[in-house]
Amino acid sequence: MATEAPVAPFAAAPAVLAVDVGGTSIKGALVGADAAILATDGADTPQQSEEALVDAVIAVACRLQKCALALGSPAAALGVAAAGVIDETTGIARHGANLLWRDTALARRLEERIALPTTLLQDARAAAYAEAIFGAGRSSDTFLAVLLGTGVGSAVVINGRPLRGAHGLAGEIGHLQVDAHRLVCGCGGRGCVETVASASALSRRFASATGRSMSAERVVDQMLAGNPIATRLWADAVAALAAAVAAAVAVVDCGLVIFGGGMAAAGPRLLDPLREALAQRLSLGPGPELVIAALGSVAGVLGAAAGALAVLGRDDVVESWRSSPVPELPDVPSRAGTWGRPLS
Of 14, 138, 147, 320, which has the highest C-beta tally within 10 A? Predict the structure, then answer.
């Protein structure tokens, strides 16, 4: 009796669409079954209405779908990673501190427009999953991932997979209330980590203190140049992060914390003072290793792609990625430019 030759894990597996919806930008990619990024697209994140936000996500997905057909690699599913309170079971974006979700049935609306099975994931969990598969968490079973962008997103990974928790909120240290200033947060709380340690908070607080408006990256530059106000605000951010990370480490006992997002580009200027602050807070055992994420802004779309494959029952393909090299963006222009080359 003839036997069939073994099939590679990704053979006959389809390409998928992946979209990452953040507070500032929407990033999309067509991802092949071998994890190759075949095309990219993107847009600025609309701030005027829920409808405009949903339309922008649909537009990115539709353009990628057309691109997939043109390349002869039709997509079989769509994965969407979105910031905010995300109900992954129902595909509903409940609320967003920095996005206009209002119990938005995002997965259903996307399925209706592009006719592909669609899964919705929380963005920090998607990015953490990608770091577990390809990046800085590849050799660690348990870690905390913290994304310092427009907001502060975070997720706990246990045994290589993100932990959801009872309400899909596991690991959300960005909304622990730790700040003595008691600033109002977009979530409705006061004193959340996000009110002092996010990029938007750093920029907003510097403008309030000086009357000068500038991006968080420029505020960090001011801190590096010795500006006393920028230095004080950066110290506030580090202190808030230290309190929240220490709480997460105490509960989960993770030996690794991965920092991503735009503010993580500060590198040692973030990790060194944070390491010192954690040493003062963690008395029962050694502090965790602190590292910068390996995937940069491509993490969210790779995590979303893994989610799309899971919808198709192709977890075997995702598992095969764990021994694959880190995907690189194609050397072709996209609508959003080179939006997410991995950090070098």
Answer: 147
Structure-block tokens of residue 42: 């993107």
Q: What is the DSSP string of 237-272?
A: HHHHHHHHHHHHHHHH--SEEEEESGGGGGTHHHHH
Higher pLDDT, 178 or 1: 178
With a threshold of 0.90, does the pTM exceed it? no
Least confident range from 56-60, 187-191, 229-233, 299-303: namely 187-191
Decide if 303 contacts 327 (C-beta within 8 A): no
Q: Please tell me the distance from the alpha carbon of residue 108 to that of residue 118, in angstroms, as a whole number.
A: 8
Q: 111 with 35, same domain? A: yes
Give which of 97, 79, 150, 99 is closest to 297, Cα–Cα.
150
Pairing of strands 15-21, 75-82: parallel
Where in the sequence is the domain holding 102, given as residue range(s)?
A: 15-127+296-321
